[in-house]
Fold each of these.
Amino acid sequence: MEYKKRKANFEILRVIAIIMVLILHYLSQTGNLLEVGVSPSSRQITGQFIESFCIVAVNVWVLISGYFLSKSAFKLTRILQLLAQVYFYTILVTIVMQIAGTASVAETDRIYKTTQYLFPISSEHYSFATAYILLYVIAPVLNKGVLYMTRKQIKYTIIGLLVWFCIIKSIVPVIFPTDMFGYNLDWYICLYLIAAYIRKYNVRILTGFGTSALLFIVSGLGNFAVSMVFHRINLTSGRFTYFATVPAHYNFILCLTGALGLFSMFRYMKVSENAFTKAARVLAPFSFGVYLLHEHIEIRDRWVTWLSGLGIVGEASPSALGMVFHMIRCVLILFVCCIFVDFIRSQIFEFVRRVLSGTRLFKWFGIIDAELAVDKEK
């Protein structure tokens, strides 16, 4: 029963995380974030404040995945489903854009863009999807390590990874060649192990919902304060040009603590059953599709312009409050549209599954899943 409650809570959190991602992308596309070396406007300060709390979204998503995958059997079909979902969007959206005559492919980059469409994982068409699917591939190896290592071995492995990927870069104002800002598989493995460790030993990050919420809020405020302080220092002295951008990195220490706080909040909170929570659980399976559709290379830098230019939401007013209302309208409309499209995609996939379920190919995949799920050492 406890497991089911946590799963239901995390499904709600997954929806919140993808909405946070949409907010982050809106802010970056509309220029409503601090710019190094440029005096900030009220809209940019407001946008930076919002980003400081939403920047935890990807970390939270990976923590949720690690929490459940660490106890799940390996399924080849699940990886194939993720790949099929990626290809559904990379190819279908491209075809639709070409037919509509709105594709941005020029003669000079036709070969490169085609490569991005046909090999979306290798070309990092979607940087998150590339690392996320690779995480699924190596999850069985990570799970075996978590299963057979002692508690101290896992703990000190995580501490070592945190020192290497998080703590050093959070205090040393120098860009390191090995630091990918937390946008890659290395950091996701670290998050995965943290979540697996929490689940295996039922680790209480904090005492309960209240302290978890406090950690999330303090981390967000701290992230905003660091952003503002180093932006100001850079503006007046020209120093810390790189470090002024570090609070936006996924492996920044306050981004990690904020994610752990939010993750812990939904782990402990008691969610009342109402229309909102039920809707969130229904929408959760479509969250990855929301990401894939709006982050297609033909859409990612254009959806805000489309919504504004077509008169759907209008232009944002110059005030900070006007920007916030414009952001809310844009994000909600985009979210609903992407959910609808991914629902259609899910129905197509289900139809294909039913039609092909009796074929040799599908039966073969079922046999492979069954074989991979068996622990030969037990």
Amino acid sequence: MPVVRSSDAVTHEIHGARFISYATPLTGSKELCAWRGEIPAGTKAPAHTVTREEIFHLLVGDLLITLDGHSERIGAGDTVIVNPGVALAVENPTDHTAISWVTTSIGLEAELADGTLITPPWAN
């Protein structure tokens, strides 16, 4: 039985946010990836277009989520479904760190507005 202990989770940082990776092929997952995201106060991550569906659940805090130019404020307990091909931007306009749980299928990539392609290790 694959069990990923919190002490075994791998932490990655990019664009001011922290991604703590739990479920990936390296930890025994065959189809899905899952991670905890920590978005510090004042963070405004660059918009990016995702290649796989993401389920973004906010555990703690408030965020401003923008999907294809439409912004929505979300709070703890809210879930955002990000479909493939959608431009996503995440901003934490508050003075507290927000914490999320995100799940996607293995192989997610993200393209920044300038064409930079990111293959995040927490989703592959």
